[in-house]
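Chain A, query sequence.
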Amino acid sequence: MKRYAKTALWITFGLLFVLVIVKVFTLMYELNSAIQS
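Chain A, predicted structure.
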């Protein structure tokens, strides 16, 4: 059970990390588009 909890924790952190990266990339892309236009 403890091992499963650790795995679930890693999955949650991984998803959060990916979400943050996607948000940052989207922000950078929008900023780039705003500068170019």
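The mean pLDDT is 95. Residues 28 and 34 are 10 Å apart (CA to CA).
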